[in-house]
Amino acid sequence: MKMISVYDSVGCILSHDVTQIIPGEFKGRLFKKGHVIKEEDIEKLLSIGKEHIYVWEPSEGELHENDAAIRISNLVLGEGVCKSKEIKEGKVDFFADIDGVLKINKDELFKLNSLGEIIVSTLHNNTPIRKGEKIGATRVIPLIIDEDKIINAEKLIKNKIIYVEKIKSKKCLLITTGNEVYNGRIKDAFLPVIKSKLGYYGSEVIKQVILPDSKEKIIKEIKNGLSENVDMIVCTGGMSVDPDDVTPTAIKECGGELVTYGSPVLPGAMFLLAYYKDTPILGVPSCAMYSKRTVLDLVLPRVLSDEKLTLEDIAAYGHGGLCLDCKICTFPHCSFGK
Fold it and tell me: Which stretches make up the MoaB/Mog domain (predicted)?
């Protein structure tokens, strides 16, 4: 790459984008990489302070920033992700190609960013994502990079770093427990909450059963739901450690595998997760009725994408598991669950 005077640049090809900034009015690309400079362009270049331009004369073993960014994109992008059709100022943006849960291989991402001169930036792992949402970007630092740096990255990274797990539509059985609700002393407030949170992801409550605090009756209805092949069972009410709250015991004794009773998330400490074969059973604490965001908002999209969560997955939520209950909620683009 060599520098030449703009007065001698007619007919030359720009090796990079040229940005124009008009304070308070405009910031953007004046000329695109690859633009062939014309006589009338000279005055425009001078007006933004460009008295010289850089013309790249490629040498063997060198890559332009755009070409390097494309190769990095091809290296890191997996299923459910697409990239920008146009490269601006050497940067390629990444977008979700489907509704789902963003997955980031954090170990591989760290290795790639540790090489130097190569950067990949992403949103947080396990963020629920809508199709078309921006989820990351890449570029290299120098305008011209040694190709060996890219080759080393291609040898080092063995797994895709960024992908989106598709969220599936599921049919849910809602079992609401509590003597006060069963006997009509208070109105159930769980149904609209669970319907809303499931509906946001295209799933639905196909049946609600309201039961007293009876372990045997709860077990019976869980087994009925399993025999009817529902995709998921959500149990609400009776999730504390009071002697009358028997829902956790009923879930444990229904024949499934208990993952956890308790989570390091506030609100949501009394959350329960179990599986009967591949059918998830969620015990949702009362905080879900009145808090905007709880542990349910963190776990639900992952369950709906058919990820089988482990105790380690739940334990990891302790770091970032405190909801600040902001007046204006920006979840999932906040610190909660990150």
Answer: 173-305
